[in-house]
Amino acid sequence: MVFSFSFQGNESFEKLASMGLIANLTVYLQTRFNMDGIQLVNVFNIWSGSTNVTPLLGAFLSDTYLGRFRTLICGSTASFLGMVVMSLIAGIPNLRPLHCTGGSNCQKPEFWQLGVLYLGLGLLAIGAGGVRPCNIAFGADQFDTRTEKGRAQLESFFNWWYFSFTVSLVIALTVVVYVQTNVSWVIGYGIPAACLFFSIVIFLIGKHTYIITKPQGSVFVDMAKVIVAACKKRALSLESTPENSFYDPPCIESDQQVTKLAHTNMFKFFDKAALIADPSELDDKGLPKNSWRLCSVQQVEQLKLVVGLVPVWITGIGCFITMDQMNTFGLMQAIQSNNKIHNFKIPPGWMGLSSMICLSTWIFVYEQIYLPYAKKRSKKNVRLTMRQRINTGIVMAILCMVVAGIVEKNRREKALKQGSLLSPQSILLLLPQFSLSGLNEGFAAVAVMEYYTNHLPESMRTLAGAIFFLSFSASSYLNTAIVNVVHQVTAKLGKTPWLGGRDLNKVKLDNFYYLIAGLALLNLLYFNLFSCRYLVKNADKTPGSRHEDKGLEMNENV
């Protein structure tokens, strides 16, 4: 109970702090730094991508030197300092350009002002590198998957992690965003900074209740050794090679975290790294003289597991690109819509609430209503398969973009007819597209996160978290490239460009949405025709024993 309070307290406060910034960053960059659409999207996506690629470095430091607990502390501290810098920018007028109410002749930020902004965002990216790969893994460490009780607790851990994550987002998207938009940006950024401070304190209070594992060494170095060793022995043949020709020492029995991986026939090229080409490669104790030329079967199989993630990882990137549109262009739509309901002005950042509410509602209904009822009736495992959930998420992504395109075209036409920057169309008409984006995340993102964590053994869980957030990073960078290419191409055609400028009424954003919908359709075909074959069979297996003695099994008939 103490562990649950302290760990979830840290998790909730950290997410409340980070999302208190992310949820309204688009509005802040446009209204306080006077950025146009392309610059805004580039800054947001590059920063968002950086916050999701730094977890790879965090995972390396955690597994090699610091351990998950200390990495979490360092990451939380860096995030806190980043929020302090953002609060100073909001509170000191000289750190940002003069305020502009609209139009295209607004003062651009100075180079040094952008430098201070990037410093704050950079610290937050560093903090994310420490927190994101370790939070899920550290939480999973607290459950003993060798026992039936531990496996039962872990079974719902992923959904409930996402549920608590979403509750924090809802608070950030209501209270924090409202304060930022209608009260003060200084207070609005001060609240997340204070939350981060309390998250660190709460996490330290619960230290004595945690199961804290020691660093086991970085799997990144082991994977690099396998690749180098396999390349050095690329001329060797594996045909008719007996099993005892491979270097396969037993795992250390005292290390309960390391799961012995059996030799598999997937990605055979990497097997050459474990092939004993000459007895002289071993010393008198039977250990490799050069670990960059001869690796163990365990190291080879770990790399195979990671390579086996790539097809589904690409599918995840396709799903997350849709979510990126709502974080940038979706909020820009909200800024130029009629946000008055009677005498109350709805902050544009509140649009993300519908995404979070749909996501958390789906998880709650699925875990607390559907599953208990279905289990009573069938007495069997009635969970939706990963393929079903990912497919549903991709369909939600397609619908999201189609609906967004229709709504945007109607918004722009009404604004042009009225001859004003703001459209008379109600901001509430944006709710369906944000809701569909939330369902995309609720189905696809949760399933992909669960797949990564369960696909890899316990000793590689930090890497699983880093890979999950790396897919968000890749989607952000890919989305940045798509946005800039579309902007350049459509601007050169001589007609109305699809993207660009601070005024959405002068571009055809709806066409861009339809393009993203087409890419999501291609992702659906790619997943069902190829990458779904790489999903691991889940029937009658648990995360703790999934890879024992059987290696990596392929589900050809998912």
From TrEMBL:
GO CC annotations, alphabetized: membrane
Name where it's found.
Membrane
Matches recorded under InterPro entries = MFS_trans_sf, POT_fam
What SUPFAM superfamilies does the database record attribute to this sequence? MFS general substrate transporter
> What is the recorded membrane topology of this protein?
Multi-pass membrane protein
**Keywords of the record:** Membrane, Transmembrane, Transmembrane helix
Q: Which residues cross the membrane?
A: 72-92, 112-138, 159-179, 185-206, 303-323, 350-369, 390-407, 427-451, 463-486, 512-536
GO molecular function terms noted in the UniProt entry = transmembrane transporter activity
Does this entry carry the keyword DNA-binding? no
- Hey, which family's this protein in? Belongs to the major facilitator superfamily. Proton-dependent oligopeptide transporter (POT/PTR) (TC 2.A.17) family.
- What is the designated name of this protein? Nitrate transporter
